Amino acid sequence: MANLCLYGWNDQWQQQKNNLSYTGLEHGRIITTHKNRYDVITSQGVLSCELTGNYLYTKEPDEYPVTGDWVVFQQFDDLGIIIDVLPRINVLSRKKSGTKADVQHFASNIDKAFIVQGCDSNFNVRRTERFLIQVIDSGIIPVLILTKSDLTSDADALKQSLGKVAEKAKVFITSIYNEKSISDLKSEINPHETIIFIGSSGVGKSSLVNKLCGNEVLGTSDISTFTGKGRHTSTRREIILLESGGILLDTPGVREFGLAVDSQDTIAETLDIGQLAKECKFHDCTHINEPGCAVLGAVESGELDRGVYDSYIKLRKEAQYFNESAYERRAKEKQLSRMVKKIVDNKKKG
Ligand SMILES: Nc1nc2c(ncn2[C@@H]2O[C@H](COP(=O)(O)OP(=O)(O)OP(=O)(O)O)[C@@H](O)[C@H]2O)c(=O)[nH]1
Ligand SMILES: [Mg+2]
Ligand SMILES: [Zn+2]
What we know:
The strands form three sheets. Strands 10-9-8-11-13-12 form a six-stranded mixed β-sheet, with helices on both faces. A five-stranded mixed barrel has the order 1-2-3-5-4. The protein has a two-stranded antiparallel sheet with strand order 6-7. The chain contains ten helices and 13 strands. The longest helix is centred in the C-terminal third of the chain and has 44 residues, at 306-349. Mean pLDDT is 89; it is low at 223-230. With 350 residues, it is an alpha/beta fold. The chain starts with 10 loop residues before the first helix and ends with a helix. Strand 12 (238-241) and strand 13 form a beta hairpin. The protein has three domains: 4-85, CATH 2.40.50.140; 91-220 and 232-250, P-loop containing nucleotide triphosphate hydrolases (Rossmann fold); 265-339, Orthogonal Bundle (Ribonucleotide Reductase Protein R1, domain 1), CATH 1.10.40.50. Helices cover 33% and strands 22% of the residues. Guanosine-5'-triphosphate binds at residues 147-148, 150-151, 175-177, 201-207, 220-223, 225, 230, 232-234, 252-253.
């Protein structure tokens, strides 16, 4: 028997289930996602589940359930059939690599995102900004973790180099060889909170999860940390419980983290440009070449770091492109479904 409260089930979820009149069905949380199957933790233990055919054919792949979702299901022998997904509190996504505007959801119903970076050659301020923007845009509390601190003589300098971005989140400097750093990080995890670990491959996400749990629940790579090069060791997203309470969601590292944000405001706010922009002469200033632009003025005076400004322009362009392409794609999809409907209707008539 599994106590689903340990996995985050509470009165609000029960209410959601009741509102949708699913009281007669069992519920559970997706702890691992495979290609066409889901491992769901239920009150009876882990059950392998599939989607109903109706779900598969009437929904877009980006509407399929993800790790972290609460689902209602019906059990047939040792297989569960997922009937529906309870409305998500939030979902963490990115732009699918190699596409213009396809969204890939990482996981849902997350309280905090631990954004992990190595204090070795992996460290990259621009990458941190990306992760931070996406996390904040999804309504998730970000936490920055600079790990492998044993590999540098000055982790504080790295933290300093994050500039104002470091003010948007708590920052932890950790090493799996420093117990105190691990227990400090653990104190950030409250019982019933779902924590997702994100970051490039090989930064040490699974190693941190193992250390926090106090045993080797996840496989980690044994590649030379000297080169700092990662190979994907974790291949799927999975949920692990902390004995002291807390739900940890490990993810495989990503090579590329494309933004999938709806609002450009999050980019400006996260990079601390929002306030400055209010002082520009023109309310629709693009901060590229307008006279009286407070943002450009701040770059000139050194108040705003040029690297942050360049990053802002680049990420804003990326988000704009993503949104325009997503809009075009949706319009094409609508057109296609209208065509299909017409054909079906004509067939019925004929
Ligand atoms: N020196 C040092 N090495 C570490 C630390 N944490 C992890 N490592 C090493 O870094 C390598 C990668 O660690 P993983 O935990 O597998 O990294 P990951 O982020 O889960 O990687 P993917 O699953 O591929 O995304 C392993 O060789 C770990 O032993 C640390 O704090 N210090
Ligand atoms: Mg891993
Ligand atoms: Zn401006």
